[in-house]
Amino acid sequence: MFRYIVRRLLQMVLTFFGATFMLFALVFANQKDPIQALVGERPVSESQRIALTERYHLDEGFFMQYWYYMKGLFTGDFGTSMTGRKNWEMMADAWPVTLRLALIAIVIAATFSVTMGVYSALKRGGVFDNVSLFITLVLLAMPIVVIAPLFQLIFGIELGWFPPTATRDATVWQLLLPAIVLACIVIAPEMRVTRTAVVENLRADYVRTARAKGLTRTRVIWVHVLRNSLIPVVTLIGVDLGGLMAGAIVTEHVFNIPGVGFNLARAIKTEDGPLVVGFVSILVILFLFINLLVDLLYAALDPRIRYE
Amino acid sequence: MDVLPGIDPRAPLLEVSDLHVEFRTQYGVAKAINGANFWLSAGETLAILGESGCGKSVTAQAIMGILDTPPGYVTQGQIKYRGVDLLKLSENERRKVRANRIAMIFQDALSALNPVYTVGFQLGEVFRKHRGMSRSAAKQRAIELLDQVKIPAARTRVDDYPHQFSGGMRQRVMIAMALALDPEVLIADEPTTALDVTVQAQIMGLLADLQRERNMGLILITHDMGVVADVADRISVMYAGRVVEEAPVYDIYSRPAHPYTRALLESIPRLDMKGQQLSVIRGLPPVLTDVPKGCAFNPRCAYARDACRQDPAPPVYQVSQQPHRTARCHFFREVIGE
Ligand SMILES: Nc1ncnc2c1ncn2[C@@H]1O[C@H](COP(=O)(O)OP(=O)(O)OP(=O)(O)O)[C@@H](O)[C@H]1O
Ligand code: SF4
Ligand SMILES: [Mg+2]
After folding, report:
1. Is the ipTM of this complex over 0.95?
2. pTM, two decimal places
3. Source organism's superkingdom (chain A) (predicted)?
4. Please, what are the domains in chain A?
5. SS3 string of A214-238?
6. How confident is the model at residue A201 (pLDDT cuts 50, 70, 90)?
7. A214 contacts B96? CB cut-off 8 A
8. What's the CA-to-centroid distance between B338 and ligand 3, angstroms?
9. Best mutation site among B238, B303, B333, B336 for ligand 2, i.e. most ligand atoms within 8 A of its Cβ?
10. What would the pLDDT profile of B141-192 be if each residue is shown by its tens digit?
11. B239 and chain A in contact, CB less than 8 A
């Protein structure tokens, strides 16, 4: 197990460099005139141009820029945004609210999809199963750019059940509606996978043994069947994190939450290369660590993997 | 242990009469069991024998009350344990009969054990849920049980997962689990089919020892006539969901009364028949959604004549009183006489 973790960590280092390098290439290949983009419509004086060029190493080659950036990153300097603010400052503002949002969304998605998936599987072919199949299909067909404003309009503004926007110090209550929107992207596949896994496991021989032992139906399902069925679901939740991050950009924009997605969207629009790279580097690291966590959880759930 | 209402210690240990089970599938109703009858006494081994698909496992599941419902339903008959008809009990009472009074082991111990829990957990669960023991007390009992089924280093192996055991050791774990609460009846559904020949003999030996120690009634389901001869007291031969012949082991081997039993016996390879053509029963078992009229065996039977192709199916004929033998063949006298 220990060797496995070490191997995974080494892989993560490689992935990190590969991913950030590609990101860097994409961001800087796209830049036409970052200095002009930075100051907007106003004309830029030659001295300003020189100062900015020096500060961001704009005159040096792409590889050098990547080198400077990495050096900064590993000495704790996340660089400076084109707006002049320190990157880490902006990130310290943005990350907490996004993490909270994502966490609430994952909890909502996991709770809903697992309970409803199990229930659907137990009552397969019934009304609940069919209705939930229909709803998940609708959810699957609706992109987040539709769901987010729609939910905001219906539940936030028209019905007024939830606050329609959130602030930097948003409470759980303020984040509930955007988290539900975010959860909607992953609930459908997670629920279907849960349902399929439970249906499959209900037919397994070990279920017959558990019943032959005189266990109650509740115990057979929630202890024996569920534990086995969760293995594919956990993997999926790990994979879904990427989708969740992408969804956060739209959701934070719609609900005006000053989180990572919100800042990232703005940084891309203003061609703020250092800020984009700063946010995404952390995103990559986070993503890699969560994937490792999911793999460890997977091994914890399935001893056949743990002992390989 | 909870006391079952109406239990009579002098009544037969287990008595199955006129059992009918059907599977209601989208392709039609499959009549898997069409009137099965047999009984079992304490300390006795009854072998249930028959080709694949004849309903042996379904019968066992019906006795345990673990049929997949839907699609499987018991539509008729009685399963009496010490005089109590199990089919009339509530689900909760029925559940307590399992493991406490009647236990079962399965063919493939790898898939029959839950892959994600240790064997200690799965064994201990029986004590925790039926006897209300603590986790540590249950684990202690699990170790004792593993010792009893002769698993070496039980104290350390108790924390292992099923996939870490060999096939024979896994079946020992299953046996330990089934015997945890000292049941009076053990149903073993092809307990050795998935194992090598040498391991098969060890497991059968272990089962026989444990049965003798505990004076337990054992129902041994198999399609291997060779295994049966060594361990069984009586045999019930099943065909298309019915017991077509029932007799003590010696009698059935020396003078079968049903053409199907006869054909089965002729299909056992024997040393003294080396080099000869092995006789295999011609034709296929019937499709359960479309069982032949009259005697279900008639399309494959060498003795068949017109009477066999008319409903009703042959009744349970008494072949002899002492020993008690029955057969469901109109012409059993002719068959046995040869
Ligand atoms: N869950 C089920 N759904 C539908 N049909 C079933 C189900 N379980 C069993 N059957 C049917 O009942 C019949 C008897 O099956 P059973 O498993 O009892 O056979 P068996 O005698 O144990 O055979 P084998 O030696 O292969 O184990 C089979 O024809 C099978 O198709
Ligand atoms: S009743 Fe007829 S068909 Fe059936 S086993 Fe006897 S002789 Fe054969
Ligand atoms: Mg079977």
Report:
1. no
2. 0.81
3. Bacteria
4. 98-301 (1.10.3720.10)
5. CCCHHHHHHHHHHHHHHHHHHHHHH
6. very high
7. yes
8. 32
9. B303
10. 999 999 988 899 889 999 999 999 988 899 999 999 999 998 999 999 988 8
11. no
